[in-house]
Amino acid sequence: MNPFLCAIFLLGLSSLASAANFTQVFEWNNLDYEWPSDARRAQALENGTFKAENISPLYMAVYGSRLFLSLEKNIGIPVTLVSLPTNSASTAPPKLTPFPSFDMHGNGNCDKIEWARGLKVDSVGRLWMLDRGSDNCQSKIWTIDLINNDHTKLIHRFSFNDWIHDLVLEETPNGTFAYISRWYRTHIVVFSLERNQSWVVDTLGIQFYSIALPPKDQEPRQLYLGKFYSNELYSIPVAALHNGTLTANPKLIRKWTAIDSYSMLMDNHGTMYAAFWSKNYISSWNSSQPFEEQRFHEVAGLSSPWPFTFALDQSGNFWITVNDRSKMPRLRLLKAEVGVKSYIFEASPAFRSPPCFLFPSPDVTAADVTGQPSLIVRPPILNQQLTGVGLEIDSWATVGFVDSGIIFASPSKLIFGMLSTLNFKNLQELA
Ligand SMILES: *[C@@H]1O[C@H](CO)[C@@H](O)[C@H](O)[C@H]1NC(C)=O
Ligand SMILES: *[C@@H]1O[C@H](CO)[C@@H](O)[C@H](O)[C@H]1NC(C)=O
Ligand SMILES: *[C@@H]1O[C@H](CO)[C@@H](O)[C@H](O)[C@H]1NC(C)=O
Ligand SMILES: *[C@@H]1O[C@H](CO)[C@@H](O)[C@H](O)[C@H]1NC(C)=O
Ligand SMILES: *[C@@H]1O[C@H](CO)[C@@H](O)[C@H](O)[C@H]1NC(C)=O
Ligand SMILES: *[C@@H]1O[C@H](CO)[C@@H](O)[C@H](O)[C@H]1NC(C)=O
């Protein structure tokens, strides 16, 4: 299919993305783990090594039908990485399943998961997890192969412990790099998977907490970095980080309205999302445009220091946990179909056939993807576009593709456009 054609549907979708429509998947009044046995749970409650009320999500990743959360390491939190299903036949909220297993967790044991922090899934289905370590153990990185029996590997030990927050992954023809924020230190950390090496890049006195990477097609690709006690957003060109550069000169590029951005994320069309300490909203900014902060999602009455975790999955859903320390429900999981994916996935495959037919949007439905493909497109997507050139489709429009073009059909009109030159000016009314 002609890439341009798909671009039409994307135009329609992008206007929807800002009006993301979240639905609730689960809500929890009480959070608990799936314990290996009732006896262990009872004993842990009794000896104080488990305090359910202290369970509090930090970061999120989603892959396939599983969602992963890292948890704040409070008193009474024996496990800091859990999984839960993204849907369930029952509306009862699922228990948090220790991931990859209960016994892979252990504080003060350098070969176990001690304190999971930033999480990301790469393009081949590996969950990457930062582990803060402990007084006795250095910080480390784990990968868990989600499509290969959750095969778990401790891939790297850093030369430091503590002050390690979030990460982003960059997959280049020269290998995979992780960039890691370390607030309270005036550097970021670069890890090269192929070389199994990490090094620090000095940031000239600036400390960064949140970190985000735009999609591959942004040139030159920048690493975005946010701060605590500040509303400033900085960037560093990533090319300079590959080759062992030891000093970066972060450039101040924007200011959010709020201070303390603790978590940031970019989608594969270049929109950035950011959450802030004690703020009841997630902001967004379309990085292809001059800075304009928008409210992506807001929760009335939310009062919590670390109110949200969020992630995008591979099929175009935006996932959010809403963490409320002051009232029930304690935690809610929300989901919206936004039609964009994580920055790790190229946007361009969506422009190719056949994935073009698979847009997960309620407004574009694959009516028939076998044989002669056709789509049903609901106004106002087409309506908006077509009225601009004096055409109007006032009701459901069926769109069919023939060899050389596209046919839009509505109850009153049949309109043809050539694929090769398709723009909204050369559509012809056939009937
Ligand atoms: C972001 O801005 C670009 C350039 O103006 C535009 O093409 C794109 O549709 C916008 N994305 C969204 C999600 O609005
Ligand atoms: C959200 O979904 C509901 C139910 O499908 C619908 O009534 C409402 O118009 C949608 N809102 C937006 C902004 O899309
Ligand atoms: C508390 O109970 C748990 C569960 O059996 C056990 O693993 C842990 O070692 C106990 N800790 C202490 C300090 O007794
Ligand atoms: C990578 O380096 C770590 C030390 O940081 C070492 O423990 C591990 O064995 C190395 N992995 C490989 C595959 O060489
Ligand atoms: C890969 O490495 C080569 C040689 O160092 C360099 O010229 C090239 O720009 C690098 N490519 C990327 C995408 O970083
Ligand atoms: C690394 O790359 C940056 C930017 O591409 C360049 O300015 C710098 O000289 C390079 N350093 C080395 C050691 O090659």
TrEMBL record:
GO terms for cellular component: extracellular region. Its main location: secreted. Residues 1-19 form the signal peptide. Pfam families: MRJP. Keywords: Secreted, Signal. It is found in: Secreted. It comes from the Eukaryota. Belongs to the major royal jelly protein family. PANTHER family: PROTEIN YELLOW-LIKE PROTEIN (PTHR10009:SF18), PROTEIN YELLOW-RELATED (PTHR10009). This is Bee-milk protein. It comes from Cloeon dipterum.
